[in-house]
Amino acid sequence: MTGEKSLDKSGGVALWRRVADDIRLDINGGRFIDGGKLPTEGELATRFDVNRHTVRRALAVLEEEGIVRAEQGRGRFVRAARRLSYPIGRRTRFSAGLAGQASDVHGELLESRIETPPLPVSKALGLTPATRVLRMESLSFADGRPLTRATTWTGPSTRFPALADDFRELGSMTAALRRAGITDYTRQETRISARYAESSESHQMGLAPGAVLLVGTYVNRDQDSVAFQYTMTRFAADRVELVVSAE
């Protein structure tokens, strides 16, 4: 194909994974439309300057993710999953942000414990290094499909003695915080990066090996502008797009 560039093979990422990433980007970017036929294995091998086995493995991953379907005797076709739009702003709320896009939105607590947090978390929350906080590991779902995997530190722990139990019961962080007396909360900024999912994250979120995560890190402040919560949320990049608000 004219104008195509082969992959740089000097990197540390497996070639099949990088081929899968490039095809996924083409699908998400509209180069290959939903229902459209993909180039043949031979054409893709030529485009990326790799062998057909590498292309075949990359396509198998995309089939596992549900992005591509194979039809015997006809080839492979795009079956792009519907991606939800998740707004990022000063008052970001999971349920409210997905309103109108999903009928069932809820969170699930995986585990919780009281601990002395990493130093960056203590500093961000304005706590002494020895101050203990509540750490929660959770998943969030939209219509039964995992969208996020979050690690949340809330502190000091003495201020939120029932937060984990309330979140487990209510399935909503906003509702659980309201019970704890947090009537409103805002975030100053959200830092967003991207990386490959770890094996445990892939398993918990039902992702194929090599799936990409968008990682958002932020600090929440209560109605009195006191920092109380530090969160690192991993979003499944092929299931959700982040929309940054200018508010």
TrEMBL record:
Which terms in the Gene Ontology molecular function aspect does this entry carry? DNA binding; DNA-binding transcription factor activity
Entry annotated with the keyword Protein transport: no
GO biological process, any: negative regulation of DNA-templated transcription
Q: Which InterPro entries match?
A: Bact_HTH_transcr_reg (IPR050679), Chorismate_lyase_/UTRA_dom_sf (IPR028978), CP_lyase_PhnF (IPR012702), Tscrpt_reg_HTH_GntR (IPR000524), UTRA (IPR011663), WH-like_DNA-bd_sf (IPR036388), WH_DNA-bd_sf (IPR036390)
Q: What is the lineage of its organism?
A: Bacteria, Pseudomonadati, Pseudomonadota, Alphaproteobacteria, Hyphomicrobiales
Whose protein is this, by species?
A: Paradevosia tibetensis
Q: What is this protein called?
A: Phosphonate metabolism transcriptional regulator PhnF
Q: Does the keyword Transcription apply?
A: yes
Family matches, as SMART domains: HTH_GNTR, UTRA
- Record keywords, A-Z: DNA-binding, Transcription, Transcription regulation
The record's listing under Pfam families reads:
GntR, UTRA
